[in-house]
Amino acid sequence: MPSSPSDPDSPLTDWHAQELLLMREVMKLVGRSLAPAFVLREMLHLMSELLGLNRGRMVLAGEPAPGEERTASVRHAYGLTAEEVQRGVFRWGEGITGRVLATGLPAIVQDVDAEPLFLFRTVPRERLPPQTVAFIALPIEVNGATIGVLACHRIRSRQRHLNDDLAVLRILATLAGQLLRLEQLVAEQTRQLLARNAALARALDSASARYGLIGRSPALLQALGELERVSQSQATVLLLGESGTGKELFARAVHLASGRHDQPFIKVNCSAIPETLFESELFGYERGAFTGANTARAGWFEQAHGGTIFLDEIGELPLAMQSKLLRTLQEGTLVRLGGTRELKVNVRLVAATNRELAREVQAGRFRQDLYYRLNVIPIRLPSLRERGEDVRALALHFVNRANQAHQRNVNLAPDALARLEAHDWPGNIRELGNLIERLVLLADHTLVTAATLERFMPQAQAQAQNAAAPTGETEPLVRDYQSAQSHSAQALREALARHQGNQSRAAQSLGLTLRQFAYRMKKLPPASPSAPSPRRGDDT
Q: Does the domain at residues 218-382 carry the CATH identifier 3.40.50.300?
């Protein structure tokens, strides 16, 4: 049978063209994939198909266990069975392969049958061709150290010079070393990134556990960073932002991060205190200061001595109390209601408001000197719209908390979490928490999908309420968060008149809470004698 030009042993073979084809194909593989395993296996395949260098193998060193001898094993091969690959394990200095590993020098065996050091460990002699078989082994180096061996069998009597095979194998061994070095660098960088990410995750988780704040969004982390930078000072902190953004948690975080963390943390909601009781609540009173004051009582500032006091909704503070608060902040003293002696107090103040205090100052409703005293370190808390990536974590936190509180086992499906992330959340974290609690209590199934969730969303709740209202009035279950100037005096009085002076129903009809409605009514000029007398209770 005549020889074919594609036969590696054919006298018609253009060896130079075969070498170029092999190099071109190997470079294509490198460009297509940087995974060494894929490239090295195909390299061995091309060595056999194009140059007749058969049973090629890459013997690579492994990491020895403590107290064990260092070995290398066949990692990549072409033309070897799985059993032969498994047998291919060599100690340093053992056989031809072990000698190349130990010395870093190439080895050329012209006749494996005549070489006493040749072990026939991987491929038994009876599995080799009957002709004289040569064996070539070249070191694979990374950073000047031998980490493996590129080896193959070769029929000795061929039309191709042995030196040509050696030249090609040296290039391939060098390329294999570079690919393996690249794999080491990528693995090391990956390990470093994973370690760094794990450290960041632990730091963020510990911060969340320490402060009770959920989330990792840049907006939240920025506010937390500002908080921690000022926590060790004694300066007043003013928390700004929309209602429902978690001002109390941030105020507590200021306290926990400060040197006062072992002392009292007193929170006061200024909007919940009647104007006539402000002074006695904040500064305390002496016995006999007013009817019913049978004993003396320490106010909130005295109870916070040595620690932190948090005045929420400080924009609701009456002007008369603003001057007394300013004096306490400036001098560190207070006088109880009905008392005459000054008491020293050491208190750090954290205040919060969702109002524009600068506008309140311009309108004459807030003292300018107190505003400057409070505005030493303003920190703006991000709305939930700015923390979109935190919605999922917050929702799962609220689900777990509601499940424990109400003995339920409700879970959110992935599409339900995606629907929550897409919502605008005008009421911020408070609105999300309320919705989740309502969902856990009223859901019919343990797994809540987006379709089930939709009927609990604020728009669906408002539509259902509107459809059920016989008078056509809208009383949404989920109210928008309104500014203090959201309704005119006429609108407030008309709503009160429609509901015969019942403030609760009038507030609902305007989308306000009873407290919001009462505050707005209190700020109005005196009503005409014909106006209905307001009643705070419900019809029941």
A: yes
